[in-house]
Input
Amino acid sequence: MTESTSAEQVGSSRVKRGLAEMLKGGVIMDVVTAAQARIAEDAGAVAVMALERVPADIRSQGGVARMSDPDLIDSIIAEVNIPVMAKARIGHFVEAQILEVLGVDYIDESEVLSPADYMNHIDKWNFTIPFVCGATNLGEALRRINEGAAMIRSKGEAGTGDVSEATKHIRTINGEIKRLTSMSRDELYVAAKELQAPYELVAEIASTGKLPVVLFTAGGVATPADAAMMMQLGADGVFVGSGIFKSGNPEQRAAAIVKAVTFYDDAKVIADVSRGLGEAMVGINVSDIAEPHRLATRGW
Amino acid sequence: MGARPAETAVPAGLRVGVLALQGDFREHAQVLRELGAEVSLVRRPEELDQIDGLVIPGGESSVMDKLARTFGLAEPLSAAIRGGLPVYGTCAGLIMLADTILDGMNGQQGLGGLDIVVRRNAFGSQTASFETDLDIPVLGDKPVHAAFIRAPVVETVGPRASALATLADGRCVAVEQGNLLGTSFHPEITGEYRFHQYFLQKLVAAAR
Output
C-alpha cells in the first residue's frame, strides 16, 4: 500500500454531476424551517431544498420572492446530515456566491423565485458548487447545461398540486431526446438550430439517447402515485415542494412518497403506501391560473 | 471513459446483484455487464436468494438504511454477509458495510461486516468534493482515478480488515476483508473497471 501523490481537484464537472448521480432514485423535499428539514430527513429525503416560502405560499402571498435568509440556511445545514440545496433567483449570481460560501451543497437557479435578470442566466461554470436548473423542453435543458448546470429538473407548475405540467414537460424532454436518436447528421444541424442549443450537445444526445446530466422532475407532485408516475415516465428522481408540508400529515406523506419512488414500478407497494395519508394539499388547477402568473414560463 | 478491459471469466449461472433501493445502481449494473457478469437489481428479500454476490452503490446511506429496514431486507442481508456473501460497497455502500458508523443519522445502523470505523461525509460540503489519483498496488501499476463525492473515510481499520489505499494525508479510503470490499470513492463513474474485476474474482472464488 502506498500513498497517493497527485493533486486533488475540486469543482470538476464529474464531481458536480456526480453528486446528482448519487441522488437518483430519491426525493428532494422543500423545507422552510430546521424542524421541517428534520422531518424530511427522518422520512427518507435524499436532500432538502431550503427556501423562505414554499411555492404555494409564494403564489398566494405574491410579492418578490428571493433567496432565503442565511441564518435560516445555516440552521437547516446544522440540523441535517443529508445534502442541503437552496434556491437563487434566475440570473442572480451574487445570491449564488452567498449560497456557495454558506456551504450549501447544490444551488437551484429557480423560476419559483422572482427572476433577477430577464436576459441572462448565471454563468455556472464560474462556481465550485454545482447548479440544478429547470427546463420545460430539451432546448431549454441544453442551454442550461451549456451554461454549466450539472443537473436538470423538468418544470411543473410549482405550488399547485396539479401534476399535469410536470407530466407534459418530462414527456416533452424525453420525446425530443428520442427524436434526436433517429436523426442523421445533416438533420442534427437543423435540430440544433431549432432547439437553439449547441450542436456538440445535440450530437452527444443523439448518440447516447440521454442527457449528459441527471434529470429529476418537479412541480405539482402531491401524492405517492404522482411521484411514481414521474419515475415511470423516465425521471431519475423527484422534487416535492408544497405537496408535503401543505398536506394534512407531512411525516407520513413524505415517507410514503420516498417508498413510492423506490418501488415506482410496483403498484402493490404504491397502493399500500397511499392508504390513510390524510388530506393532500388543496391544490389549484393550472388551467385556472392566468398565463402571466405561471412560474414554469420563467426562464428561456 | 477509460479503455475497457477484457471481460472477466464469470462462469455462466453466477449472478451479481446490485442493491437498487436508491443511488447510482444503474452505473454499477452497466460496469458489471460490460465485464461479462449476469446482473440483477435487488430491492426485495426474496431477490437475495438468486445472487452470488452483491454491489451496494453510491447514494444516500441513511435512505438506503431506512428502506432496507422498512422492506425487510436488512436482516437477511446482514445474515448473508456474515455467512460469506461477497459484497462490494462504494461510498454509501462502504458506510452500509462498516461495523461502526460515525456522524450517521439518528438510528442509522448499516449492515455491518467490515471491521472498520467509518466517518460519513468526512470532507465537508459538496464544494470540498474532489478527484485525485490513487496508487493501489493490488490493482496494478496504473493509478486509480478516484472521484470523492461528499465521501466517507475509514477512520480505524480493525485487525480483521486491511487497507488498500490512502490519500496523501494518510487517511484510508479503500479496504478489504475476506469476501468484502469497500471504497470511499466511485469507480463506477470514472471508467475504472479494476475494482469490479477484483470483486468478481472474489465472487468466482467464493462460488467454487
